[in-house]
Amino acid sequence: MGRHLLFNLIQVAVVLAFAPLVAGVLARLKEIVQSRRGPSVFQPYRDLRKLFHKDEVVSDRSSWIFRFTPYLVFVTPLLVTLLIPVLTDYPLFFAFMGDMLGGGFILALGGFFATLAAVDTGNPYGPVGASRTRMVGFLAEPVFMIVFFTVSFVAGSTIPYIVQQAWVTPLANFFAPSHVLLLLAFLMLILAEGGRIPVDNPTGHFELAMIDESKALEYSGRGMALMKWGGYMKLFVLMCIYLNVLVAPWGLAHEQTLAAVLLAIPLILFKIFCFLLVLVVIESSLAKLRLFRITEFLGAAFVSAVVAMISRLFAF
Amino acid sequence: MNLLVIPAIPLLAALVASVAPGRKGAPAVTLMGACATLGGALWAAARVASSGRLVTIAAWAELDGLSALVLLVVAFVAVLAALYSWGYLSAHGYEPRTVRRYGIHFNLFVFALVLVPVLAEPALVWMAVEFTALFSVLLVGFDGTPEALEAAWKYIALMFMGAAIALLGVFLLFRAQAVVGGGHYSWEGLRSIGPRLPQGLVIAAFVLILVGFGTKSGLVPMHTWLPDAHSQAPSPVCALLSGVKTTVVLYTILRLVPLLPAHEMDVWLQGVGLLSVGTAAFLLLQVRDYKRLFAYSTVEHMGIIVVAVGFGTPHGAYGAMLQIVSHAITKSFCFFAAGSALLVVGTREIASVRGLVRSSPLVAASLLFGALAIGGAPPMAVFLSEFAILRAGLASGAYLATALLIGFIAVAFAGILLHVNRMVFGPAPAPDPAVHRRALPTTCVLTLVLGAIPILVLGVYQPSGLHTLMTQAAAALAPAVVP
Amino acid sequence: MPMPPATSADWLLNLNALAGGAFLLVSFGLVALRQVQGCVRLYVLQSVLLATSALLLSALFQTWHLYAVGILDLATKAVLIPWMLRRALHDEIYVRREITQVFNIPTALLMALALAIAAYFLSRPMLAAVAHDAPVALNLPIGLAGLLLGGLTAVGRREAVPLLLGLLAMENSAFFAGIALAPELPLTAEVSVAFDVLVLVFVVAVLTRAVERRTGTTAVGALTTLREDPRG
Questions:
Q1: ipTM of the predicted structure?
Q2: Which of A223, B25, B106, C182 is 20 to 30 A away from residue A196, measured at CA?
């Protein structure tokens, strides 16, 4: 038991520590693809340190929601980390607390408060971004639901530790159409939820075109740092779910020893690095969609999720 | 003689027409080819009437009563259409190149039409049916006006959609036969094991083929291409499309009827048929284009044939066969008459044609004759066949369907006569100089005369050979007797 | 949990299922994709998936018929038809985007979904009749769904090339069901269908060129002068 608690905390530490690195690597890779040098992969850490040392300015018209939100945004990915397989293929100490649906709800809670906080300040760009985020959210939610339903239908469970085994026993199942289509749908969801191209441009600086970023415009100092860090971790957690539960349930610690768990850390980082390469290809080859075309993008995700579902429901 | 010679004749004619010199070369070749095809068809039909079957390659190319009847009808209408095309082309004064193009497509179209009854393997028949569409589409768009091209596009799109749906039906049919095992994959092979075929598969295949090929034969609600194509295509092509192409495709649907579980689909067939008859009868009332008028009449008659088969009795089947023959000869005549009116008047608008009886009595007379004949007035062929069908309906106990059929036929009759009456009688308007009028060529007149003869003759007298053939054909619609 | 070891038949069935899922997804893509060139590529992809399924099933059934079908399919649909389309119509048509479709794209996708689900329900009675043969159970619903989606594509498109591709996709889908239903169908049937499709592409190309010459557009779906309109 105590060992499981320790592993769980290691998981949280891994997410905390490596999430900014992943963001930095992604930015650097994109720069390289665009034939530029770009900042160091450790730039996000420097940004965070700088922000933590700065003073925070808070509008006196804002309510407690504005002050409370950064903490929530920071904590929610960590809570999800307790539930999902990041390093091990067996459930850890806190895993009993929730399934994949629970994880989805916790992440959504952070997003919900970020939206409220954006409206709270009275900055005109905040509500614009908030309403757009909601629009993307409304379109993404049904897809999430279908994906979860299909996953639970296949595995007979919504516990991620059981799901990841269902895809590979027997190994031929890995190529089942429902699985491959789910991978596609979930990838599109990650792009939408993570605010990546083609749904949103995370590096854009034009307020009118922003979706996700404009929600954090009013933050500064520590609040900003927490919001950013929370954002990095959310992407990290989404990628962990995607990679460990859906794509490649290999390379996780199977033995209950500290060495195995520590060995799993470079493996998950390697998987994420491979995924980042894919992400960079997507981001470099696509342009950001016009706002109303996002419907079509998520419509496509919805279609592939439903096709996954029906090909599972009716066949075999 | 080899059965495959018959479709080879128009194919050869298409080749020769592509190099035929002058403005008369291609039509002459076409006419000769069509006559030779008719000769072959007569020979084959006579053989079938005397011996019951004619087999060249077992399970691939063979004729029985039903297919011989269809072949005969196709060949007959093809001769008249070829004759009419001669006049039609010369009246328009097309370039030799255009005339050759017409000749090639016309002969290929006839080739495809002849191929359908000659082949006996469903997958190959599917191909032949698809050829009837592919080779006629450029004829539909022959005039090259935006309207004609639109009609051609609509035509080909719906044709191929129907074909793809029917293709799935053909696969299912093959599967159904494979489940039972034994016998050839041919119409006759399927019929001989008909009752043993798995019913679910056969019904699914039948529904798919009914939808797919029903599109091609103009059954409501997939009939939308038909009036468009018929209003735009050259009149002799209309005669082929309406008179025999729809019939030929319907023939392939009828081939599946004996496979169906006895009487289970009868009500459905009656329903599908009545839907076409009823819709077409009421659409007839509001047309503004007289070629569309006859096009809707085709939809109506296809429906009548399906209803007749749906009665499920030998008399009903015989009535359907009679209707196939009478409709083909009458409807092609109607389009020859309508085409002649178009030639002399230069417009397809019913409203702008008045007093035809004064300006061109021959065209007026043939139009009126065609309208009466297709409407079902005695003593013409359609009257006889419709009467036979209604009697079969009453005898089979389908009173409601028969009553509806009578009502719809009456509405259609009134609708056709209403419009044709307006065109034929009334004061002749002052000639509009903007409209191009042409004199009626001699070959067109000849076609009208030749076309009218069988309509009248078949109304009062049936040659014994034809009767035998139709009896055999009707028998082919009944399930095979299992020993 | 003890699991039976995966046999090679399991693998073939699963890979076939994967090809089927992708096939269905490509059908959806044809309904919704705006770029004409993209549609051509999707069609080629669909044909390749059809050939893949044919080859996998030929290994499963151990019949050379389907092997020949797969090769024939690749040769005509993945090579010859795109080449014919390229030759017959000038490049400008392919770089086009379809500005308007009959249904807007989310609507079309929802309709497509409804059709796909309907196809699965419609194929139930047919599957009951073939005694739940695994390849048929997979291919038939997907083929039927593809057939309906191809029809939706043909109905919903205005531009000539995507419209044609919708029709061709219908034929592909019928075949997708057909290779599982009738693996022993005489090869003449397949050859004649392939020939038929080539003639179709040729005829449509001729027609499209004529339409473009006369009306200056290839948006054939927008030609709607022929109607039963009382005012004309």
A1: 0.93
A2: A223
Nearest to C109 among A169, A181, A299 (CB): A299
Q: At A4, is the pLDDT very low, low, confident or very high (cuts 50, 70, 90)?
A: confident
Within-domain flag for A168: no
pLDDT above 50 (res B223): yes
Residue type, B442: T
Extract the residue ranges of chain C whose pLDDT is less than 50: 1-3, 230-232
Closest CA of chain C from B315, distance in Å: 33
Could you say which of B149, B178, B200 has the minimum Cβ distance to residue C210? B149
* Contact residues, chain B, for C231 at CB < 8 Å: none
Q: Closest to A180 (Cβ–Cβ): which among C5, C6, C21?
A: C21
Question: Which residue range(s) make up the domain with A121?
Answer: 2-138+202-286
Selecting from B127, B134, B161 the residue whose C-beta is nearest the C-beta of C203 gives: B134
Contact B333, B370 (CB under 8 A): yes
Cβ–Cβ contact A178 with C under 8 A: yes
> Residue C188: its chain B contacts at CB < 8 A?
121, 123-124
Domains in chain C: boundaries: 10-216
Cβ pair B472, B48 in contact under 8 A: yes
Our count of domains for chain A comes to 1
In a domain, A42, yes or no: yes
* pLDDT at residue number B1: 63
B49-93: pLDDT as tens digits = 998 888 888 888 999 999 999 999 999 999 999 999 999 999 988
Share of chain A above pLDDT 90, in %: 32
- Closest Cα of chain A to C124: distance in Å? 9
A182 contact partners, CB below 8 Å, separation of at least 6: A147, A150, A151, A246, A304, A305, A308
- B126 pLDDT above the threshold of 80: yes
CB contacts of A295 in chain C (<8 Å) are 105-106
* pLDDT value of residue C132: 65
Q: Which residues of C touch A313 (CB under 8 A)?
A: 120
Residue A125 lies inside a defined structural domain of this protein: yes
Predicted confidence at residue C2, as pLDDT, reads 43
B411-438 residue pLDDT tens: 999 999 999 999 998 787 776 666 667 7
For residue A62, tell me if it sits in a domain.
yes
Question: Higher model confidence: residue B48 or residue B483?
Answer: B48
